[in-house]
Amino acid sequence: MSEHVVVIGAVALGPKAACRFKRLRQDAKVTLIDRDDVFSYGGCGIPYFVSGDVSEASALRATAFHMVRDEPFFKDIKGVEVLSSTEATKIDRDKKQVHITNLKTGDKSVLDYDQLVIGTGATPRKLNLPGENLENVYYVGNMHDAEKIKQGITQGKFSKAVVVGAGFIGLEMADAFSDMWGIETTVVEIFDQILPRMVSPVLAKMGQNHMQEQGVEFKLGQTVTRIEGDGKVERVVTPDGTIEADIVIISAGVLPNDKLARECGLDCSERGGILVDETMRTSDPDIFSGGDCVIIKNAVDDSPFYLPMGSMANRQGRVIGSNLAGRNEAFPAAAGSFVVKLFEKSIAGTGLSLASAKQAGFDAVSVMLIMADRAHFYPVRDMMILEMTVDKSTRRVLGLQGYASSGDAMVGRINAVAGMMKFKPTIEDVSNLEVAYSPPFSSAMDVLNAIANMADNALAGMNYGHGPDVFAKYWADRECGDYCFLDVREHADAEPFLEKYPEYWHNIPQGEIPARFKELPKDKKIVLVCNTGGRSYEAQVMLHGLGFDEVLNTQGGMAVIKAWGVDI
């Protein structure tokens, strides 16, 4: 009798594992189970379906050849049997059976398996708020929610939206509501920044500022205490007041669906999630698992890592499919690479931010650089802001995050470093990283090489200073007399600030410092500013050589100061 592989869960990981195994073992039988009647779809595309960028819901279920991934598709094209609207209720490991219930008829039955895959995904985290069950309160957990939201929007039912949570989905939904449909949108986040734990407060503030320019309001450092309305949502209540709303999206993260695995005795994390080895095997050698329900390894510090992302699930699914067929493939540790579109801008990253690195026990520092995404002389270019986190003692690159336009340039740089993270790269590895060069695409010294060189200089004590957040504190305290703000750009660039702040703003172009340094006070901290931080770094080196001890470079210069939102 041919081998029977049963796969529980048919959104991302399950179909990939099933189809990969079937390609390798045409003689085997594969059964794919899902409790929903809509399965095998790109869940990460839901915000773009809501926005209208993806016009039809069926597009999220279609292949690149425009074939909808439904039951007949899997049976006729892939040779895989799909049992939709079917819930797996129990796994009997001793008998190697899965107990299932048809959710439409109530019929119960048992499937025998030789090998089993658990791809049960995750469930949106419920906040258990009063009013959470009112009409038009959604978690965006499946295609059914997405279609209801889109239908309400196109019918003109929604004019004011509240999004609870400023993570990936929350920000993408805020973008979708405000950009395409002009819905008045407010984001409420319990942390004091967007994308908490993912990026530094500086990059987060830049992204927030851009979204605010597009009309999105933010209530940071706040919680929702209840949702009110008569049958359907009308308002959201926070400790600071009430926000009117006719639709609410709760995006407070997800929890791994590990109930089946726990009940059958598989090893699971105390904090949630199924434990697997590098081959994606569970503690039972005949059961594999992957996707949003598992715990893997962090490539930076080797800690347990929960990373619910569709890209991870698809790659893990292929590894599982291969290993079901007898191969011995491994899924590497992950660095947590991401990118999120925020209107015309985007934020991306890989590895750890500075705060996350310190929390993980590293003696870490970060540097920030703004630079053109291609040759400075090429007529079409955009500015890219990168922040690199490094470990002082080992010189390891622990993470790289960035803020730039929503094109591909920054994502390409992030991806280049993401591919290196499992090898624990050093500053030198990125400083000398070979990248494809041509002026329409990059600089001769690419921005990646440049920020690694900047980190090298910082660890050598040659480029030290602060970002725009610290500059803002210095500027707010300018009347105390402790600081000398020195603009090292040419006079024409500095003139507006000299006229506006004659008592505090000073100007010596960087090339004139050797002849004019005696004009500067030695009893004050000299805060250097230029357009991007490059000339001010040169000025810092000069002044240090001339005997000035407290000279601080504003990394990223006026460009970053403006993006962060310093009122100057």
UniProtKB/TrEMBL annotation:
Protein name: NADPH-dependent 2,4-dienoyl-CoA reductase, sulfur reductase
Keyword Signal: no
Pfam families: Pyr_redox_2, Pyr_redox_dim, Rhodanese
CDD domains assigned: RHOD (cd00158)
GO molecular function: oxidoreductase activity
Cofactor: FAD
Domain (Rhodanese) ranges: 479-562
UniProtKB keywords: FAD, Flavoprotein, Oxidoreductase, Redox-active center
Stored InterPro entries: FAD-bd_OxRdtase, FAD/NAD-bd_sf, FAD/NAD-binding_dom, FAD/NAD-linked_Rdtase_dimer_sf, Pyr_nucl-diS_OxRdtase_dimer, Rhodanese-like_dom, Rhodanese-like_dom_sf
Family statement drawn from the similarity comment of this UniProt entry: Belongs to the class-III pyridine nucleotide-disulfide oxidoreductase family.
